[in-house]
Design a protein that fits this description.
The structure is a homodimer.
Chain A lengths: L9 H9 L14 E10 H13 L6 E4 L22 E5 L2 E6 L10 E7 L2 H9 L5 H4 L5 E8 L9 E10 L3 H9 L10 E2 L25 E7 L2 H10 L4 E4 L5 E6 L2
Antiparallel strand pairs in A: 1-5, 1-10, 1-11, 2-5, 3-4, 3-10, 6-7, 7-9, 8-9
Chain lengths: 258, 258
């Protein structure tokens, strides 16, 4: 994908985070580059968490996994995962205990970092394919819901799938499936189309995460597996300690979308 | 894929292994079903090994990973991985210490089992596509070679890639690439075609594993990533203990090739 306007490079975005100048969302930044969800867990839980991702590739598409104590990923040479995202959330025993812009004070050498594909990537492909995305045009976060779709369990990690919902014109649904299906590394094709109650969503107006969005008469609600799932699984597991990115505040990698 | 002759079911094959009646290779058995390489490592090395597979999907395509101590895989309900393969190899500190038909005497509750895709599956697809495979028609094991192609390292595991070589008529090479490329879960498209010396193979007549095979004037040597790679990496790592299947003696799963 290309863009006609000048844009910050991924390294530029990361440097702005590191210096504390960028603390907001990364949506639309360094267009054409893969953005990634971050999850850090202690080494004792790393095998179980990697297995959870391997068994649930649609909600948990792995971009990269780092050895314990390593903070410079291959997908972002020169980066430091402790400072180069705009914001982080710190959990203890499943409870949010801090939201910070820098985690050097929380860092432990036994932490293992997981980077997971983020839907910002396939949204660019959908828009390039002429499919309007209302939450983007309205500058809102996408609507996300807990469902009754079970994930495969792995050790201490078990949860149902979290999905994101985008209203798509009926005439565009097939194209939206085809286009997103070309990106298995960022959730791929939808997991459900059209009947929220069939996957345990009682009220589209009340998302569990993100912002609600209007659904018009000529549109269907289309549901994709969501990268919040692994965070939700970590929360439910009530492991003693973990750190993840704050919503919408992703790692911008050097990888290009293709 | 279908076959016109009656064939043992995967459960039949596993039962014959368990009772000690089948101790030979599984090539061609329970046709149409996925066969898998087995690797068992102690829990302390399981994260590193899973990471090695995740970083090197062509030689190490994961079919399934089991939690520590679990011996019944989802891909073979009712099976016991300690008895249901025809043969096993036991390694200590990188040295082969036993080759046995049953590993119950060696089993430890901290062992984690990895099942990896095996080329028997795409060979069936190649043959169904009209591509002759000389080692199959000659009843030999495929020729395998250590190369200079580096794998991505993960923790204690590092090695170069092991490849299998099949002589393919020049006119069929493109078809062989297309057909095998449809099976990313069992090594996918070739990693190299035509120049063995470019990947560090000095003499095609002297494979590092398996049997040599003739290369005719109208053929090219075609190289695929090989499932022996993870065993080779485990051997090189000199970890204190690991168990794998004996060459050609696979787990026959209930999964179908498609």
């Amino acid at each position: 994908m290309t863009t006609s306007e000048p844009t910050l490079s991924p390294a530029d975005v990361r440097a702005l985070c590191r210096s504390g100048q960028l603390v907001g969302q990364t949506a639309g930044m360094a267009r054409g580059h893969v953005q990634a969800n971050l999850m850090m867990v202690p080494r004792e839980h790393a095998f179980d968490f990697l297995l959870f991702c391997q068994r649930n590739p649609k909600p948990c598409p792995l971009v990269e996994v780092l050895e314990a104590g390593v903070v410079e990923p291959r997908c972002a040479p020169g980066a430091d995962l402790r400072t180069d995202l705009p914001g982080y959330r710190v959990y203890e025993y499943g409870k949010l205990v801090a939201e910070v812009a820098d985690i050097r004070d929380y860092w432990r050498e036994d932490m293992v970092s997981f980077l997971l594909g983020c839907s910002f990537s396939f949204e660019q492909a959908l828009m390039a394919g002429g499919i309007a995305l209302r939450h983007v045009s309205q500058g809102r976060n996408v609507a996300m819901y807990k469902t009754t779709i079970p994930c495969a369990e792995a050790g201490v990690f078990r949860s149902n799938m979290v999905v994101s919902m985008r209203p798509i014109k009926s005439a565009d649904v097939a194209a939206a499936v085809s286009i997103s299906g070309r990106y298995p590394g960022v959730h791929g094709a939808p997991v459900h189309i059209g009947h929220p109650e069939a996957i345990g969503i009682a009220d589209l107006g009340k998302p569990d995460f993100g912002d609600p969005v209007d659904l018009l008469d000529d549109e269907l609600p289309v549901f994709w597996a969501c990268g919040v799932t692994p965070q939700y699984a970590a929360e439910l597991s009530e492991i003693a300690f973990c750190i993840c990115h704050a919503p919408g505040k992703m790692l911008v990698t050097d990888f290009t979308i293709d």
